[in-house]
Design goal:
eight-stranded antiparallel beta barrel; 8 strands; single chain; 61% strand; mainly beta
Length: 183
């Protein structure tokens, strides 16, 4: 049922924006580094992040692109290989770019979504789904009619109260670079 509802929403959004004639979809890949901060940095080291995303012009909010992003990160423990955290963030965000393009188009990114988590601490293994929110800054530069490069940094806040025994929420900074192809 959940998959059917998600499919229905996606088809509806694509149909509406296609009918309006303003959908200019792009697909892309990004890679970067995740830095745990606050309490997460006490037990986890930074690590790589990879992701895929789809971007399209918004017909509702001027100067804004909507971005659906799916990522993958595995954070190793600082003092022991018995501690680790794997998470897969799935987010929907807006990239607001009201300034003129000076070769690099700057944007403000706001969004949220869910993160699928697996936290391992010794023999304890917790799998969970939590909401998260993100805010960041980035820039895009077109290198051809079809190819655009981007770089961005985001602050991510994971509401981890659903993990049993969790005494704090998760926060991290993500810095990444990406490439996107516009159809």
């Amino acid at each position: 049922m959940k998959a059917f509802l998600i499919s229905l929403i996606v088809v509806s959004v694509v149909s509406i924006t296609s009918f309006a004639g303003s959908l200019v979809p792009s697909v892309g890949l990004n890679a970067g580094w995740v830095f745990p901060i606050s309490n997460l940095s006490d037990t986890l080291n930074g690590s790589y992040q990879i992701g895929i995303f789809v971007r399209a012009n918004s017909i509702i909010i001027p100067y804004t692109d909507l971005v659906l992003d799916v990522g993958y990160t595995s954070l190793p423990g600082k003092s022991s290989s018995d501690v680790s955290m794997l998470f897969i963030p799935i987010s929907l965000s807006g990239e607001f770019a009201p300034l003129p393009d000076f070769g690099i188009l700057p944007y403000l990114k706001l969004g949220g979504g869910i993160v699928l988590e697996n936290y391992k601490n010794g023999s304890s293994n917790t799998t969970n789904t939590d909401p998260f929110f993100l805010v960041g800054l980035g820039g895009r530069q077109k290198i051809s009619d079809k190819i655009t490069l981007k770089i961005e940094g985001t602050y991510n806040y994971i509401y981890q109260k659903y993990i049993s025994g969790s005494a704090y929420d998760g926060t991290y900074i993500n810095i990444c670079a990406g490439i996107l192809y516009q159809f």
